[in-house]
Specification:
The chain is of the alpha/beta class. It folds into five domains: 103 residues, PriA, 3(prime) DNA-binding domain (GIY-YIG endonuclease); 56 residues; 180 residues, 3-Layer(aba) Sandwich (Rossmann fold), CATH 3.40.50.300; 187 residues, Rossmann fold (3-Layer(aba) Sandwich), CATH 3.40.50.300; 88 residues, 2-Layer Sandwich (Alpha-Beta Plaits). It is 31% helix and 24% strand. The strands form seven sheets. A seven-stranded parallel β-sheet has the order 11-12-10-13-14-9-15, with helices on both faces. Strands 16-26-25-17-24-23 form a six-stranded parallel β-sheet, sandwiched between helices. A five-stranded antiparallel β-sheet has the order 2-1-4-3-5, with no helix packed on it. The model has no long low-confidence stretch (mean pLDDT 91).
Length: 715
Amino acid sequence: MIIKVLVEININKQEKTFDYNVPLDMQKYIKIGIRVKVPFGKQTLEGFVLEINENSDYKVKDIIKVVDFEPILNKELLSLGKVIAKENVVNLINVYQAMLPKAYKASNKTSINIKEEKYITLVKEEEVKGKNQIKIINDLKENKMILKSNYPDSSVKSLLEKNIIKIVSKEVYRLDNSCDLKPINKLNEEQARCFDEINNSKNDVCLLNGVTGSGKTEIYINLINQTINEGKEAIMLVPEISLTTQIIERFKRNFGDKIAILHSSLSDGERFDEYRKILKGEVKIVVGARSAIFAPFNNIGLIVIDEEHSSTYKQDHNPRYNAIDVAIHRIKYHNAKLVLGSATPSIESFARAKTGHYTLVKLDKRANNAKLPLVTIIDMQKEIKKGNKTFSNDLLLAIEDRLNKKEQTMLLINKRGYSSYLMCEDCGYVYKCPNCDITLTYHKTSEMNRCHYCGYAENKMDICPSCGSESIKSFGLGTEKVEEEIKNRFKGARVLRMDIDTTSRKGAHSKIINDFYDNKADILIGTQMIAKGLDFPNVTLVGVINADTILNLPDFRSNEKTYQLISQVSGRAGRDKKAGKVIIQTYNADNEAIVKAKNHDYESFYNEEIKVRKKLNYPPYFFLANLIVSGKDFKTTIKEAEKLGNYLRIKYNSFMMVLGPSVASLSKINNIYYFSVIIKYRNKEKVVKALNEVKVLTENNRQIKLDIDVNPISL
């Protein structure tokens, strides 16, 4: 028996499978989609079995070991991987590795062990003496199996010697998803209408456009319950790990241990267990972030992607897949349905719904007849003249009012750290990362200047290295500084901060969210991770400290992202019986995205934005691809980027528009220079073919590296 094995190694950067012979004693275990260990030169590698043949055209080596006895990549996922690799112009092995948790990736590292616990079972009934021995026997009469660690070792040993009990090992999962079940909430009239519209839709994709707090999650849960009652499986995606805390609690209450959880905050062992549950058919629902879209189900009936507009559904490194695109492939394979949900859909999704490619389902009212919050825009140019740099008078008064009423406040500042940079006021010296084309962010809690791109860090210096002055001042605003100023202004206020720095430890997301939900804090300060999907009944005030953070980025989606961020974080206020208020601080008070967000007027914003997209040939009217050329030498890299741009213009000008090269969003990261060649196109098939040809042509160029981002989220 000869098998073709795909391993993670580049030979002249050309990806290919390799033939291996399977010894007779291993042949009964060989299946397509399993991993095997193989010799490769002087190395031992793991790879995926993709084909089984009778013979090979050349002499081959024997495999070393069979790693899996059942496929970890089923027929659908193997096929799907090839489609993703082609469409995103990446190597197939990279796609398969991205589909799997660490314990199942093809590597030569030690695998994670199955966790087992020792249990006691009854062999025969006999009269025993001793309080603890009697308790063990009585407990065994009530339960066939009891946990050994709950009883004294001496009593267990005595019963073992008498052959009254025996010890057995039983696999246990690291995550316990069992819970006291509660009935699924009944849908209100508006939610029931949406539920029926989704069920009756002739399209396989539905866009549920529901205002914040309208109860989209209730609809998801009812749709998922219907799906599993039909004997099928469901996948539920959320964009942020922070959201999984509340969503998972909801799903546990309604579905108990029928769910598996997949996201990056789990330990390797926990993800290993959750994935095995799916492979073994023990669960019907998977809840998780982006990579959960690859859950190895065999009978999918429904996929739900909440907050579908979120950029986190697009992976920002190879393979640069978009979970929504993957979901569409999967529902077509399973003849299933995809529900995309958002209060602020992406322009592309809303356009597809408007043209009938998706079914548009609208939910315009908040649940329990709660009103949308009152939104006020504060012009910070006027506030600065009053001496207010961080907080407007209106926001400070509103925070004080909520503290007096024992209500809660959320403050959004989409920048972590204390300040954006440090600068010498005497000579203008700015502290920059030596490896990247960016200023260092000052973190006061650690007294460090840090680069958020390469990880470089240095101690804060009080003397300017350029002129020797001590006039070092911080500029810009981050979550740390907002937290410090809030604590100074409101003595005794209980404040939580939620950003990457405070949530790096395992379980930190859940603790912050649960503490705030339980009213253990008055004010929650955070980056955009607090903006989406979270539900805190006692939050009546939301403050956006600087609404211009994204607006000022040189990105064609900056208006869209600004509208979405403001609308989403505004939606955290007044979700229960108490009225909500939102205060938006901005230096661009007349900006269309900010004004439309104030008025909760998505459709009006869409109508204006779509005109701009059409005029400038941006999505949804054209597709985009960003060809990122990187290298260690500036002159060589820009020269090769220019050659690439000219080649594309000459050879493929009949079906693509070529822009650039231009400096990428950051021209240097970790001593590597980056340049972008952007193409706009309509014929997807022709361009995918062309890009795969270009990839092959550049693979032997050792001076540069080419990364291709098809349908980038940002430029």
